[in-house]
Each structure stands twice: as structure tokens, then as C-alpha cells.
Amino acid sequence: MTHSSFLAPLSEELGILHCHGADAEKFLQGQFSNDLTSLPSPGGQWSSYSTAKGRMIANFYLLRDDDGFWLLLSRDLTETVAERLRKFRLMAKVDIEDASATHALLALWGAGATEALGNPGGEDALARPHAGSVRNGARIVRLPWPEPTFLILASGDDIASWGEQLRARGAHEATGADWRLGSIRAGIAFINAATTEQVIPQELNLEVLGGISFTKGCYPGQEIVARSHYLGRLKNQCYRLRAHAPLAPGRAIFSAAMGEQSIGLVIQAAAVGDGSFEALAVVRAEDAEHSTLGLEAQGQVPLEKLELPYSLPLQKAAEAN
């Protein structure tokens, strides 16, 4: 039986930063929340870049290969992050380039995605989440989604060839918005220009997703992130929500308990075929667990809480008690 797979270009969703040079690993290790010294080549991990106050400027998927490090982040934050990294590199031998114009990303997902991809790098090269492979000019990495999902990064000419091959193997055309909906359902949101510097990494469930190291050296915002982890001061978490009204990044969320005081904001949203919208939103956990949520203070537009494919830290704590 042949299973379905879907193929979408991500040029409107994600930008690409290429960081390389003799000091690239050391420099980036001192900037990001995850430990990239343990990242195999090729391979990937979730990570983030924060202010000194722990607020995320951006989160991203970090891909490593023999050519350096590739940051896959919201398209509208690519230049912001590049400029900030350049500001702090001082004498470090590292080049930080926006590769969004010379390279492109394809997303491939679905029950038939592995079959459509073929066998890049050997039978088990892409069998586990975050595993990477390099083949025919492309860097391929498997994302930790509930169903097989891959990102394919290559130059413009090579990405066109990959697209043709995958369509010939039965991959159905999809859009970046389709992929975004899948990402939301996988519990993974990307900070963008509307939500930058609004939340700390744990509030976006980055600790659950393996995007934070608590054993590495210093990086901007580390003290705040560590304090939230070790002292248990996390009050907000990222929830998956649905509404029968438009949702967009930055939109405020309210609860019946708190009236006109907002208790959260939408981080990422996508339309669903039935006319509803799904989103990942950072919300005060007490309200999300014990009150009715809505888009208006008076509750005229209710929000339904949906399941995530993983357990949240505060839920685990409640179950333990």
C-alpha cells in the first residue's frame, strides 16, 4: 500500500541564516540556549536566542553540517537576528550570512514521506528525530513530529531538482500554511516579529522540546531561564487552541476569571479547512487549566483547548501530586 506524502516550499515561512568560520561553534555556543557542541554533523536541534532578560528574540531549528551552522527561523526575523549576532561577534572568526536568497527549504511530511524520500545516507540515517543526512546537494533532517516529517535545505538549483524527484515519487503539492498547521499540531511554534521579546524559552515549551541545555556555559538570558527551571517559577505555558474566528500572532487572550486583563497571546496560527483557526499561544497556566478562555474580555469568541503530543511541565507536576 502506498501512503500519502506532502511537499511544501517554506520560503514565505522560514528564513535561512548560515554561520560559518573557525570560531563559529564557540561564538554561537555563547549566544544560544542549547548545547551545540554535542550536535552531530549532520544533525539538528531546537534552540533560541534571547535578550539579557531572558526574552526570546527568536527560536529556530539549528542544522549542523560540514559547512557550518544553518539557522531556520521566522522569515521576518532573519535580518534582526543576523544584525544582533554580528554586533556581538567582536573579533570572533565567524561569518553570518542571510542565505534565504541563495538557498531554499522544502518540507516533506506524511505517512509516505520516508518512502518518497528514498534512502539518503543509509537505511537508518534518518530513522530518529533530529537525525541528518547530506545527499545530492541537500541537507536533510528529520523533525520530531508525530508523523514522519523532513526538512530539505539546498541551493536554488538543487532544491528544484529535489522537488521534481519528490513529486515524481508521489508527493502531493502543499503550502507553507499547511506545514504551519502541522507544526502547530506538533506543538512547535516559531516566534515572529509580532511576538519577539515577549516570552521566555520555557513558556514556548522549549524545555519539553529539548531546546534548552542546563549544563552548558553562559549565554544571554541564562540566569532567568535557569531560575525558572530550578525554582519552579514558570507560570505560563504554550497551549494549542482553536477558535471559529481569525487568529494571528500577537493577538491577546482573555479568561472569564480575569475579565479585561489579558492572560496570554497567540504565537502562531493557521486556518483549518472547516473555517476555524488553530494556534499555539502562551497562556497563564492557572487560567488555561481552570477558566474559560476567549479572544474578547467578555468571552464572545470562545477558545477551545486542544491536545498536544507531549505533556506540559505544570501538568506533570499536578499529576505527581
UniProtKB/TrEMBL annotation:
InterPro entries, per database record: GcvT/YgfZ_C, YgfZ/GCV_T_CS, YgfZ/GcvT
Superkingdom of source: Bacteria
GO BP field: iron-sulfur cluster assembly
Protein name: Folate-binding protein
UniProt organism field: Acidithiobacillus caldus
